[in-house]
Design brief:
This protein is an alpha/beta fold and 410 residues long. The chain has 3 domains: 119 residues, Glutaredoxin; 131 residues, no CATH class; 118 residues, Serine Threonine Protein Phosphatase 5, Tetratricopeptide repeat, CATH 1.25.40. The chain has 20 helices and 5 strands. The longest helix has 21 residues.
Length: 410
């Protein structure tokens, strides 16, 4: 091959690339955005985040993704656990990883999205972000107009949608919007999109929550089966708020709401809510009281042959999760025996779950049963498809067990 032809091949090979990320500082990136007139795309990640690694490995390098992003954005990767990363993640209220921020050159947010996804969906949300960037009416414009348009339902609907695109709460606006509607329109199923836009922001005790309980037909048609999950999420969010404030009165409101909405399929018992609350507040004795009663009931009274497949999965997941929490937080041998009991039950219900086998192995290891633990962890590894991140991670656990490391510590 001639040197000229080789150069041409290299040149064309270089075109077929994924997203090109800037390597400078955040201020450098904003300066380049101002210079080019492009918005900034920020991939906020952590080094331990599995979905983050998947996006970096499988999606960002794709030619179609790279072509669109390199043409329309100044792109930047931000490790949320560096000094700069922590500052920026806090500034933009990043709550999980990966989070994708779409930002103007002046630093104002255009759009945000969280989670891993396939290329088609990733490009679709990107086009939404780009349309928002080109929209001459900014959120600040909407904010400024609110006082003079707060009784205008068309304005309020648009304002709610605008805030939703930036992952900002609009529950208060939704409340005002519904109150302004004529009574005959307040149960309209078309309200479902506005409700869904506030999935993470809905709470017990608000007018909009009570309104939905009174008018469940809002979630009619293909959304009927989603109502329980939606109300359940609001109840759990309220419990988290109560725990953060150590507000028992708010907790009781959430418990009352769980009873009120039981027929909608929220599947939240009072004991489970109390357990979540006391776990979050760090009141260990109260937490374990509810935890032991709940899990032992699942172990003792629910028999394998009497469960449907979906029930088996739910019970197994619950037992495994709680066993894992005890493993992480307790060195007490008696407590760990409880955890081992629950873990064995979860494996009995789902014998091919490598995560459940891993939990059991780790508990055995913390109980000092190293040989049994290594053997169990090897069984877990044997069930994992390779090559994969999980295969590497669980294989490393085997090595750490053999080395006698305290694997429950970071």
């Amino acid at each position: 091959m001639s040197l000229f032809l080789f150069a041409v091949v290299v040149s064309f090979t270089g075109v077929a690339q994924g997203i090109v990320f800037e390597t400078g500082s955040w201020s450098d990136v904003l300066a380049k955005a101002k210079e080019t007139g492009k918005p900034v795309f920020v991939d906020v990640f952590t080094t331990w985040c599995g979905p983050c690694k998947m996006m970096s490995k499988d999606i960002f390098p794709l030619e179609e993704v790279g072509t669109f992003y390199n043409e329309n954005f100044v792109c930047y990767k931000l490790d949320a656990e560096t000094d700069e990363g922590r500052t920026i993640a806090k500034q933009y209220q990043v709550k999980g990883y990966p989070t994708y921020l779409y930002v103007r050159a002046d630093g104002s947010i255009i759009y945000r999205f969280m989670g891993s996804c396939q290329a088609e969906f990733f490009l679709r949300i990107t086009k939404t972000a780009l349309a928002e960037f080109k929209d001459p009416k900014t959120l600040q414009d909407w904010d400024a107009e609110y006082l003079t348009h707060q009784n205008d339902t068309a304005f309020l609907k648009g304002y709610i949608q605008k805030r939703n695109k930036q992952s900002l709460s609009a529950v208060d606006l939704l409340e005002v919007y519904i109150k302004l509607l004529p009574e005959a329109e307040r149960a309209n199923p078309e309200l479902v999109d506005l409700y869904l836009s506030q999935y993470d922001n809905m709470r017990v005790g608000t007018f909009v929550f009570d309104h939905l309980v009174q008018h469940p037909a809002i979630f009619s048609g293909r959304y009927t089966d989603y109502l329980g999950n939606y109300l359940g999420s609001a109840i759990l969010s309220t419990v988290r708020d109560a725990a953060r404030k150590k507000d028992l009165a708010l907790l009781e409101k959430a418990v009352a709401a769980s009873k009120q909405t039981a027929d909608f399929g929220t599947n939240l018992t009072s004991d489970a809510l109390y357990m979540n609350y006391y776990r979050a507040t760090g009141e260990t004795s109260k937490y374990t009281k509810y935890l032991f009663a709940k899990c032992d009931q699942e172990v003792q009274q629910i028999f394998k042959d009497s469960l449907q497949e979906n029930q088996k999965a739910a019970v197994a997941n619950d037992l495994n999760e709680n066993a894992w929490q005890l493993y992480l937080t307790s060195s007490n041998k008696d407590t760990l025996q409880y955890a081992l009991r629950w873990s064995k039950r979860s494996v009995e219900l789902s014998p091919k779950s490598y995560t459940f086998l891993d939990t059991q192995a780790c508990i055995l290891y913390r109980l000092g049963k190293k040989k049994e633990a290594v053997a169990m962890e090897k069984k877990a590894v044997a069930l994992i498809k390779k090559p994969s991140l999980d295969y590497e991670r669980y294989s490393m656990v085997v090595q750490r067990m053999k080395a006698g490391e305290k694997i429950w510590e970071k």
